[in-house]
Design a protein that fits this description.
It is a single chain. By secondary structure, the protein is mostly beta strands. The protein has one domain: Roll (Pnp Oxidase, Chain A). The chain has three helices and nine strands. The protein has a six-stranded antiparallel beta barrel with strand order 3-4-5-8-7-6. The termini are close together.
């Protein structure tokens, strides 16, 4: 196993993808009127692509057309002080091809937000990094047990 300078376990690409496949909520980072914006979204990992369902006229739909975006998902256990975080960089694209829309509509991705969500955004996993904290000593500093 490899660790970074902070004592966190560095995750492989496959470990990152495996963890992303277990998460339901993530945060997409995009540019909105030349400023950084972050929006929580529910998502699904489809192969090596992140699929997000939104409304066609949303700020997210407009801002992510062919843009480079960041995406982050994580899971933490505050009591045990363990957890992981995975960050993806990739190009976002609106799905407009009817066959692809139909295929994505068949995936088990149900929007949490109210209202119509008939627009799909796909983010290709071009770069991915991840870290895991595996244990914490009583003093509060990281202790790696694996």
């Amino acid at each position: 196993m490899q660790y970074d300078g902070s004592g966190l376990q560095v995750l492989s690409r496959q470990e990152c993808l495996d963890l992303l496949s277990t998460a339901e909520i993530g945060r997409i980072v995009f540019t909105d009127r030349a400023l950084p914006a972050v929006q929580p979204v529910n998502f699904l990992l489809d192969g090596e692509s992140i699929v997000i369902r939104t409304s066609r006229g949303s700020k997210l739909a407009a801002a992510t057309r062919q843009a480079v975006v960041a995406f982050e998902a994580d899971d933490f256990d505050p009591r045990e002080r363990t957890g992981w975080s995975v960050t993806v960089i990739g190009h976002a694209r609106a799905v407009i091809e009817p066959d692809e829309v139909a295929r994505l509509a068949g995936l088990p991705l149900e929007p949490w937000a109210p209202g119509g969500r008939d627009h799909y955004i796909v983010v290709g996993v071009e770069q991915v990094t991840g870290r895991r904290i595996t244990a914490v000593r009583a003093s509060g500093s990281a202790s790696l047990l694996r």
